[in-house]
Specification:
The complex is a heterodimer of chains A (315) and B (387). In chain A, 56% of the residues lie in helices and 5% in strands. Chain A is built from twelve helices and six strands. In chain A, the strands form three sheets. Chain A has a two-stranded antiparallel ribbon with strand order 1-2. In chain A, α2 (23-37) packs parallel to α9 and α7 packs parallel to α9 (218-237). Chain A is elongated. With 387 residues, chain B is mainly beta. In chain B, strands 5, 6, 7, 8 and 9 form a five-stranded antiparallel β-sheet that branches. Chain B has a four-stranded antiparallel β-sheet with strand order 1-2-3-4, with no helix packed on it. In chain B, β16 (196-201) and β17 (207-212) form a beta hairpin. Chain B is globular, with a radius of gyration of 22 Å. Chain B starts with a helix and ends with a strand. Residues 21-27 of chain B have low confidence and may be disordered. The chains are: A mainly alpha (315), B mainly beta (387). Chains A and B meet through α5, α6 and α8 of A and α1 of B.
């Protein structure tokens, strides 16, 4: 990861120099720069996951329809994705690209805040521009707190340091509350693990981050807080933060630019009678699945029969 | 266990691994502090919660004996006692004690900010509650017979009365002092991470002079022929007069953390890119480069060890290198299990302690090779001390 971390450490040192040897400002500005740089990837990921979410009812219907035929189900799903121009992995790829960058940013701040001999010796060779070594070690005192220390160690000397884990907790909670989509659960249905997990993650994640922040250097807490606030701002800007649904005021989730109106919804229960009298499932018609690849048809009773052979209508 | 709970647990565990995995591993504030103590050349190691004394001839912990010569038995474990202190609640040690007298050592407890008096004969702490001090200490302590000088890790240096523990003076610096001050004719010379080299009156704590060297100074100065030699993070090696004037300076490749070592009018130092430098010191001062060689693939932190034929350096790459003093060519290299950041020790031959040939002892950051001894002449490994 050095190929990512070292340029970022250098950039942070440059910002530190430019911003009057203020490491907090440097961390804030660097976090903003990186978040803005990865914003297109994040937007793509958000759009993709939002689109996937909006297609869920249709996916669910397809799953019910083809519950005994996985192959046909996946074909129908892919067809649905194609129809709406969605790459089912479109949400993962930007995340995979972003993750190392954000982890590198995290490591960068840890390295730049080097204060112990171990950390400082590890910082050598990371500054890629000559002259920046004169800035080492950075001025780590801010508001009477040593930014390299964990809040739990500053309880007596700077008790206000405990505000930082609380701010981490609150901003993490706010971000997850506003941005993790609320998934509803039909009380008559079997408990859905995904729904329960998303609910518990909204609670557990902030607690976990807040708890970790008690023992992490305050400088890293600043990074967490700024990162969360930027994330909330980004989500709000693209209309994917549900302020109204969460607090009853402010902007609500913006509908996607191209609302999905899939004929599959309207068509999947309909039976089309062809001009020559043969009956076809409307969804198949819509999905334009090649007959040779379709091996399940709706029976007259509305169930699914699978058998690998398509019943050919008599001419 | 429900499926939901398992999913949640898995997600939390994954997140915890990612978050904690991003934090550089912290195995302590600093590396093991090591030193050779007394005429028997016993090796003292201070690291985190323990201080231990090692017999240089065997690599084992020094056994303790009763007055009648019988091995001392620990009543709690019923085992033979060795020279070890590791039972102080919350204590952490990263520096070597200063010797007060034949029977007493004085050490700084980093974590609890206190001075402890150690009964060197019985390996016990005489004052377990300690005397409070104003800061944490990672540099080795030094005393002048009446005062002990404590360089603080975060900032400042203080003098305490050795007998009473009373604080005599405190001198302010803007950043930490990470190396042992040099005491010469009543003046303390020390570098600070605030970029200054200071000269301070040891009796009064008043500043004699301060010199901005443009980069952090984590190591001690070396005194030779009335001049000070020191390197810093500005990638420079300085020759400085005792009155605080820069006489000469030389550019190197990377940060210097090594204290320069001098023998036969030749100065050797190393940097954190693995380069070793040899200079000839002129009769009127001034340094002429003899050679420079990249010995290690990673940085070299400890001061080079000089013998008649060798310059021995240890790198963060986990290797110990024997360089030819005349040419800088690597003649022998030996690997230990982890990076070597502590000072390199030389154990002289001694009939009284049964050491037949000189040994080079290094400390790695891996506790399975906390100390490793090699013969000086051919680099053959003699013993290993692990915990």
């Amino acid at each position: 990861m050095d190929f990512l971390v070292n340029p970022l450490v250098t950039l942070l040192a440059l910002l530190y120099q430019v911003l009057g040897n203020n490491i907090v400002l440097a961390i804030v500005v660097l976090t903003i720069i990186i978040r803005v740089a990865v914003a297109p990837l994040m937007n793509q990921q958000l759009k993709s996951s939002a689109a996937m979410q909006e297609l869920q009812p249709r996916i669910k219907k397809l799953q019910e329809k083809y519950k005994n035929d996985r192959e046909k189900l996946s074909q129908a799903q892919m067809q649905l994705y194609r129809e709406h121009g969605i790459n089912p992995f479109g949400g993962c790829l930007p995340l995979l690209v972003q993750l190392p960058i954000l982890l590198a940013l995290y490591a960068t701040i840890s390295h730049a805040l080097a204060s112990t001999p171990y950390q400082v010796v590890d910082l050598s060779g990371r500054l890629l521009i000559p002259g920046l070594e004169q800035l080492i070690p950075v001025d780590k005192i801010w508001l009477g707190m040593d930014l390299t220390q964990a809040p739990q160690l500053l309880i007596t000397s700077a008790p206000w340091a405990l505000l930082f884990p609380i701010l981490v907790l609150v901003t993490t909670w706010l971000q997850s509350k506003l941005t993790i989509p609320v998934q509803t659960q039909d009380p008559n249905e079997e408990p859905n693990p995904a729904v329960a997990m998303s609910r518990s993650m909204t609670t557990i994640m902030p607690l976990m981050f807040g708890f970790f922040s008690l023992s992490f250097p305050i400088g890293l807490s600043i990074y967490f807080i700024v990162g969360n606030l930027i994330g909330i701002a980004q989500y709000t800007a693209i209309g994917r933060a549900d302020w109204k649904g969460t607090f009853g005021f402010g902007p609500s989730l913006r509908p996607l630019a191209t609302p999905f109106k899939s004929p599959v919804d309207d068509a999947d229960d309909e039976v089309i009678v062809g001009p020559n009298g043969n009956k076809r499932n409307a969804a198949q018609e819509v999905l334009k699945v090649k007959p040779a690849t379709v091996n399940a048809v709706r029976t007259t009773s509305g169930g699914i029969s699978s058998g690998g052979k398509k019943k050919r209508p008599k001419k | 266990m429900t499926r939901t709970f398992r999913f949640t647990l898995l997600a939390v565990a994954l997140m915890a691994v990612i978050i904690t995995g991003c934090i550089p591993t912290r195995i302590g504030v600093s590396w093991p502090a090591v030193a050779v103590i007394g005429p028997e050349q016993q090796i003292m190691v201070a690291r985190n919660e323990f201080i231990v004394m090692i017999d240089p001839s065997t690599g084992g912990e020094v056994p303790l004996f009763n007055e009648d010569g019988a091995p001392r038995i620990d009543p709690q474990t019923n085992q033979a006692r060795t020279w070890e202190i590791n039972t102080l609640q919350g204590a952490q040690f990263f520096s070597i004690p200063t010797v007060l007298d034949d029977e007493t050592l004085l050490i700084a407890d980093y974590n609890n900010r206190r001075l402890l008096r150690i009964d060197a004969v019985n390996a016990r702490v005489n004052n377990p509650t300690g005397s409070p001090i104003n800061g944490q200490v990672i540099a080795n302590l030094i005393n002048d017979g009446t005062r002990v000088f404590l360089p603080y890790y975060n900032h400042d240096i203080a003098a305490y009365d050795m007998e009473t523990g009373e604080r005599l003076w405190e001198f302010k610096t803007d950043n930490g002092i990470w190396s042992q001050p040099l005491l010469h004719e009543g003046i303390l010379y020390f570098g600070s991470m605030d970029h200054f080299l200071y000269a301070v009156n040891a009796e009064t704590g008043e500043q004699v002079w301060a010199l901005d060297l443009g980069g952090a100074i984590p190591s001690s100065p070396t005194l030779y022929n009335g001049r000070l030699y020191i390197g810093n993070f500005a990638e420079r090696l300085f020759e400085i007069s005792l009155t605080g004037e820069i006489l000469n300076d030389y550019t190197v490749t990377n940060w210097i953390w090594s204290t320069p070592t001098i023998r036969d009018n030749q100065l050797y130092t190393a940097d954190l890119e693995g380069f070793v430098y040899a200079f000839e010191i002129g009769a009127e001062g001034g340094l002429t480069e003899i050679w420079r060689a990249q010995a290690a693939t990673r940085g070299i932190r400890p001061a080079p060890l000089l013998t008649e034929d060798w310059v021995i350096v240890a790198g963060r790459d986990g290797f110990l290198y024997w360089l030819d003093r005349a040419t800088g060519q690597t003649q022998i290299q030996k690997q230990v299990q982890q990076e070597v950041l502590s000072d390199i020790l030389l154990i002289e031959p001694s009939e009284t302690v049964n050491i037949a040939q000189p040994l080079v002892v290094v400390s790695s950051t891996n506790h399975s090779q906390l100390l490793v001894a090699f013969t000086l002449d051919d680099g053959e490994q003699v013993w290993t001390y692990s915990r």
